[in-house]
Amino acid sequence: MWRSVALVVSICVWATASRADVTALQNGVLPTADYAGCKDTWISDEPYERGSDYGKRLTLRCGGGKRAILIQFDLAPIPKDHVVHKAILHLADVEYPRKQGGKWPVSLLAYRLTRDWSDNANWLEHTRTNYKEPDAGDWKAPGGEIDLETDFGQPDKGLVASDTLVAGRQGHAHRLDVTRVVQAWAGGTLPNHGLALVAPPKSHGAHVASSEWYVPSYRPLLLVSHGPKGSAPSELPPADDAPQEVELHPIAQTPDAGKAQGDYALVRVGQNANCALRGASTDTYVKEAVARFPGTWGWMTQCRVGGVAGDFSRALLYFDLREIPKDAAIQSAKLHLSLVPQTSRQATEYRYGAFLLKLPEVPGWKAEEATSLERKAGTPWDDGGILAPSRGAPVALGKASTRREKDRTIPDAMEFDLTGAVRAWVQGRAPNCGIVLDNRIEGGAYDFHSSRSFDPALRPYLEISLSPAVTKKPEPIEAKPALPPGDYWVEPMREAHKRFKGKPGTLAQYGDSITVTMAFLANYSWAGKIQPRNCPPDVQKEMDAVAAYSDLKLWRTWKGGEWGNTGMMKSDWLLNNIDHWQQKMQPEAAVILFGTNDLGSICPPEYTENMAASLRRMLADGTVPMLTTVPPASGRPIAREYWLAGLSIAHGLKVPVIDYYAEIMRRRPDDWDGRLEKFGKPRDVYQVPTLISGDGTHPSNPKQFVTDFSDEALSSNGYTLRDYMTLRTYYQVITKIFRPAQRQDR
């Protein structure tokens, strides 16, 4: 698999050394940064996808029904008087393939397209016109016009290539030998309309990065070896696949040089509730896709390992061993990680390594400052990246343990045998700079609870069997899930707001169906004032201040998908579009609520990253984000994990948070759910007298409590409660952040 920009350089060097011509075609990368000759999309005949435009999506899909990928490369950079020796198409997988019978299955079949098409094509149309009516924009055959007659040297007529999957340090990639058809295109014997990629029968197909993918070096890549007519054929370097056997670092064999004094006993090191030795033990993780996910992640309650197509995370762990005597005999040392259940399905599928960090000082990095480029603020990793200090063989391979839950086997924990490394650290044979966990052996991903987990019993620990025993006992840890105390956000938001250059009083509303509905804030905008019924006098003063400062008409006009709020959307929709919306609206403040559609599909750590990256984009404009925690959801206790994600963002980014989840649980801890039998089944599910409606997802909205700020109403109407909490938080933002700036402007 080709390795990002470093790979591109190596190709060029290799080509020069062998006096062969190799041209790499990849949008935004090669042969120049302005190359945009790769056109791609995917089309589908599935009922809910039929007619959709996927030409600007980040990914391409085929399989799982009637789906096909369309892709075409402009071959103009290849000299017309050259002949093609070899052509290989690489597509980066954005999921986690599974082996069948110990081998990667064939996922893609390539066929030549026989007519031109637009990247807004769909199942019936090569160029978008009228999907329901026959016209000149239609394919002659639904699903694309495919050559099924030409012999490309494959078992079946028309078949150009089938893929080979390679796995390794850069995840998984599909490799297709398309030499025969590229030779025909370059030689002018066949017109170049590109390829249709389909899944073999009974195959799950593939999900790959498109030419729009946010990490440019993982976009579709066509490598072409070519030369003048009569030149000697040149070959492309082979793919760098995962090794069959993994040899461990020599430090793993460090002998025990200590002297036992009595029986061996166990001691745990780390920030876990059961650890006797805590000291400066810590952990963090860094992300490779820094353009999309900027900043530090040492505040998150999980650590992430691995990922797909350039979005790789690497976890760093350090265990403080200074209280262990240097002459202690160490029988064993095992690292224990509690896996995040929703995200660790790949924990048992791939081999994961723990790699020894080698740095000038101990540990050499700071959890709250480390990024993939810097080990602490202003101090880069050696040779420009985090992998440099941990190059070489792993010191241990991970072993996942599992538990049974109903009819499923769930990965429960990941363990690494660090006995040799711990002996070397304690004896002083190697500096204890910690370890890096990543997926460089063969791809994959898993997440584990970090040393900041709200549940101390889930935090990582290093369990050491040693003699003499350590007699120190664990001390209790109190870690109550809660927002940071006091006005934790005021000074950070004042600093952020200094960057604001838009119109004061503007408020963006980013969210799904709970936000786009007119039951939220827009209720108050027509009258030009905010006067809820039964509003306490002190709260009414706050409402008057909000009405005097904010542009109320925007609460209604900035509604719909083009303004960042519509039904069925998830946190990735926010991240994919936030730059455009921020440029369009330039809002002074934003209220944000995503998560109800993420439940069960976008895992809590990924949700946290999406939300945090989006909030950082707002902060870059000086927009003050007011993050709303998700409401509880009927029958889905996992909603609590998304609530905790909101709390972790508050701790990490120091943004104001409207803790909707906690307030619902405070007001109605036992009967917030409108689906409970005691509330019956009203014709209108929103009319139940509780805070979550009869559909179990949306807030309730009983008519008698609309725009009513009495205590009874706030405990009976979920939308009114959200209005109340949002307006009161907005008041705090106005009076503590915006009004001082307004006075200065005057």
Structure description:
The chain has 13 helices and 30 strands. By secondary structure, the protein is of the alpha+beta class. The longest helix has 28 residues, at 718-745. It is globular. Residues 1-19 and 741-746 have low confidence and may be disordered.
Biggest pleated sheet: 7 strands, antiparallel
Uncertain residue segments? 1-19, 741-746
Secondary structure tally, helices: 13
Q: Which geometry do the CA atoms define?
A: globular
Question: What gyration radius follows from the Cα positions, in whole Å?
Answer: 29 Å
| Straight-line distance between termini | 60 Å
The total count of strands amounts to 30
**Can you give the mean pLDDT?**
93
Oligomer: single chain
Give the proportion of residues in helices. 10-25%
SSE order and pairing:
Elements: H1 4-18, E1 21-25, E2 38-44, E3 59-62, E4 67-73, E5 82-92, E6 109-112, E7 159-162, E8 164-168, E9 171-177, H2 179-187, E10 195-198, E11 206-209, E12 221-228, E13 265-269, E14 282-287, E15 302-308, E16 311-318, E17 329-338, E18 353-356, E19 374-376, E20 379-380, E21 396-397, E22 399-405, E23 408-417, H3 419-427, E24 435-438, E25 445-449, E26 461-467, H4 490-497, E27 507-511, H5 513-516, H6 537-549, H7 554-557, H8 571-585, E28 589-593, H9 604-620, E29 624-628, H10 639-653, E30 657-658, H11 660-667, H12 711-714, H13 718-745
Parallel strand pairs: 27-28, 28-29, 29-30
Antiparallel strand pairs: 1-12, 2-4, 3-11, 4-10, 5-9, 5-12, 6-7, 6-10, 8-9, 13-26, 14-16, 15-16, 15-25, 16-24, 17-23, 17-26, 18-21, 18-24, 19-20, 22-23
Helix pairs in contact: 4-13, 6-13, 8-9, 9-10
